[in-house]
Amino acid sequence: MTSATPSAAPPGPNGSPGASGAPGSPASPASSASRADRIGDAALDLLVERGMRGLTHRAVDERAGLPQGSTSNHARTRQALLETAVRRQVQLESQVLTPDELPGAAGPPGAAGTASAAEGARDGAPGRAPGTTPDGVSGTAPGGPSEPAPHGPLDTDTLVDALSLALHRYLTDHRALLVSRYELALEATRRPELRAFFDAAGSVFHGPLVAMTAAAGSPEPERHALSLIAWCEGLMFSCAAGSFHAAVPSRAELRTGFEELLRGMLGGDTGPGRGGKHWRGR
């Protein structure tokens, strides 16, 4: 019995390659994505299109173009399926938030650690046994809290440029990721076991940002990094479902927001140790 070679499906909302072949048929051998990534991509696409109720093992099989039962073999429980989705969310966000244009040859200071944490998410974070959270509790965490990577001084103009570039890229080119992020975040409020996993996932971005604010002259980099994260989270939610849902702020507008926020944190002199570059006049 012969069958036609399945054609590639169009990309899903999160930029995933989409299902290959008819629902329930074997995946195309040409697919470069791992099965775990395909399942994660399909899960995120379903969250964007149908919400949490539309995320089922069977639906993921169909969207990913995998044989029926493949998702159940990979993630037997709903909790495991949600963790797969969170893990893939972190991997995709790490690719968006650590572009080569940011400070340093390979992204922002500390970015290598962030990318490595996301890359190692399938099997747990480096240095931690697979199947454990940062506290050693059962349940595979997609990378634990990042340690701030040491690096040289960072003038605040450069930091503002880095943050505005990364956030603008996320908001304009990857808006579907915003929707899947908040679908997962809201579900985590109802599932304590997912809450711990979701928080561990987000922590991979924390360390590098602490290092960047410290290098820019912050006397309290932990607190200031949390303020930056809170501001970004509020803006991201606004672009996903709030007042900016129809029109994302321009990069210049984001830069102004980061400038104002960091000016309030660091004062008028905002270079390393508060003795560096002054804010540019407007």
Overview features:
single chain; 282 residues; mainly alpha; 11 helices
Short description:
The protein has 282 residues and is mainly α. It is 52% helix and 0% strand. It has eleven helices and no strands.
Give the topology.
Blueprint: H1 35-50, H2 57-64, H3 70-74, H4 78-97, H5 111-119, H6 156-173, H7 175-188, H8 192-202, H9 206-215, H10 221-241, H11 251-266
Please tell me about this protein's structure.
This protein is mainly α and 282 residues long. The protein contains eleven helices and no strands. Helix 6 (156-173) crosses helix 11. The longest helix is centred in the C-terminal third of the chain and has 21 residues, at 221-241. The chain is elongated and about 60 Å long. The chain starts with 34 loop residues before the first helix and ends in a 16-residue tail after the last helix. Residues 1-10, 17-32, 104-149 and 270-282 have low confidence and may be disordered.
The shape is: elongated
Number of strands: 0
Quaternary state of this entry equals: single chain
Q: State the helix count.
A: 11
Task: Report the helical percentage.
Answer: 40-55%
